[in-house]
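User: Run a structure prediction on this.
Assistant: Running it now.
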Amino acid sequence: MTKFVMMGDIHSNFQALMAIYGDVIENEGFNPNLDLFLSVGDLIGYGGRPHQVIDFMDIHLQ
C-alpha cells in the first residue's frame, strides 16, 4: 500500500525539510521508491536556503 506524507510551511528552511524527510524514512517506514512525498504549499519564503529546498523537492515531490 502506498503511503502519503504531506508537509507544508517549510519557508526555505532546508534543515527542517531534511529533518522531516529523514524522520519519515527512519520512523514511519517511508520508501521513496514507492511512497509519495507531497507539499501543501509555502516551500519558499523568508528562510535562508530556497534553492536547496526547490532542488530537493524537484527531485522528490509528486
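The first strand starts at residue 4 and ends at 7.
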